Each structure stands twice: as structure tokens, then as C-alpha cells.
Amino acid sequence: MATSKESGKSSGNAQKSGGGSAAGPAKRGFAAMDENQQREIASKGGQAAHQKGTAHEFDSEEARRAGQKGGEAVSRNREHMADIGRKGGESRQSASRAAAAAAAAAGAASATAGTAGVTTRNSGVDKGSRQGSKG
Asked: What CA–CA distance (Å, rounded) separates 35 from 90?
């Protein structure tokens, strides 16, 4: 049995504007305009609303609630919050401390590289026990 596509017959569900595309119906009206045209029209609408006195303006309480709602939405993303926490630990002060520690470690490593194979008299004694033994 031949399907409607094979026989060349229309199934009746095709759009009247030429069949449409796989991505969906063609954009029309505001959606078909480029961003600059959309922005210009929206700006005129906002200006008209302000002139008429019907434009919405946030008061401080409403702005606070909106910010709280946005913060709650962001904080649900655990991975994002973990990233923020890691970045918070990377302040300028702690970054400079980490750089200084890395430089000190690199200096200590180069100093011990020159003494490879040389044993010291107190090689088996740790610093803690040496400090306590005066005598």
C-alpha cells in the first residue's frame, strides 16, 4: 500500500504557507523582525506607558522580593553554588599567600636538589624533638 508521501498526495496537515520547515512554522510579526527593530518598538511602548502614567515601577519592597526569588532559583543549582564557594576562597589575599607558598616550596625543592645523597647528622630526628632537648 502506498503512503500519501509516495503517491504525492497531501495529508491535509501541511501548512498553507508552503509546507513549513522541519524547524517549525515560519516566524511572523514581531518575531520575524531583527533585534534592533524589536528594541525600537518596545522602547516606544515603554515611553508611551510612562507618559500616560501606566508604566510599572518597582518599589523597594517589590524589588527585594524579586531579588530574593531570583536568589532562591539560583541557589537550587548545587553545582553553581559550589563554583561560587570555590571562587570566594580565591580572594586576592589568599591568592598571594598561595603564590608565596608555591615560591617557597619551589625554593626549598631547588635547595634540596643540590644536597641529594648527602645525609645530615640529625636526619632521623624531627624538628619537634630537637627543639625540646637543650642540654
From this structure: 38
